[in-house]
Design a protein that fits this description.
Radius of gyration: 23 Å
Largest sheet: 2 strands, antiparallel
Number of helices: 14
Distance between the termini: 51 Å
Number of strands: 6
Strand order of the largest sheet: 1-4
Strand content: 5-15%
Shape: globular
Length: about 400
Amino acid sequence: MGSDAFEIGVNFLKMVIVFLMMVQVVPLLVWVERRGSAYIQNRFGPNRVGPLGLMQLLADAVKFLTKQEFVPARGYPVLFYIAPVIAMIPAALAFGAIPLSMPVQVDAFEWLGQHWGPYVFKFQSYEIGIGVVFVLGVSSLAAFGVLLAGYGSNNKYALFGALRASAQTISYELAMGLSIVGVILLFNTFSFTEIVNAQSAPLAFNFFGHKLDWGPLPNWGIFYQPLGAILLFSAMFAETNRLPFDLPEAEGELVAGYHNEYAGFKFNMFFIGEYGHMLVASALMVIFYFGGYTIYPFLTPETAPHIVAPIASALGWSTNSTAVSLLGALLLHVVLLLKVVLFLWIFIWVRWTLPRFRYDQLMDLGWRKMLPWALFNTILTATVILVMHHSWGA
């Protein structure tokens, strides 16, 4: 957590703020989904409560908090209550491990009669050297929340939805994990920060032992791993139970699926977990394949402080390197958010565009199509790296 009280306090505050960011983005995404679906279907959407229907979010919050608590008479109360918590916590833990911008450098200063610093604060809740493994492992725990919800409800429709969700998660986690292996092999690290920093450079690769640069193009993972990007993009929808992969909560077959018996705040926690996983999945796409919080050569950890320096000077902070570092980190954070928002909109767009798969089609796609292609991509990437890094015949 830190070496002194100030560093511990700041790190704790970061964890709270990042968690609140994930929670607060949920009502906004619900509003965007309602307005977006209305736009796609040529109707109005929420437009009565407040300007553009924005106050509908507050009305929904009041409804969730004031609804009567309900536990099925034949259900298992302990499992029924802990299931929503288990569904929400993995998304929060995974999102906290993702770097949202470059680190902030804080110079030494004097406060309350003591000398503090210097510090380097990561722009995330906590940094784990093997962040990729941690996020994949924690995200997979969400399946337990869904399974407990179905079993704890003791309702056949909820149980069917839970069994579908667990089978679907296991099926597509294999393809999703293998789709990322190619990126890990290319950048040779499990650290999110190192993967992002490697993409804040010109496109370069080894060609039989010789390094070639491709000028102004960024070193984004999408140029090396287009097949891996497509596989991860497809698996994201299955992992988050979104259309066309929302078989666990298919209304026409299972009424509401695994959360059939849930209402009020417990139902809201499932919502937070689902949209939280959407946020994590979108951030992973951006970090692995689209440069993370950088846009080479315009916005990188090296150029951002120089860009914000005039702003700091206008505010009278020209001599304060801490303020320049913070403004630069905020600028790159906005870059990441814009990229993530684009993929969140694609989630919404796809939901209101494509029809739902049948369950046999969903399983067939995961096991007989995506898994073999993910294995092929992994083997091909490893082979190309092995061949291209050697100067054959030299």
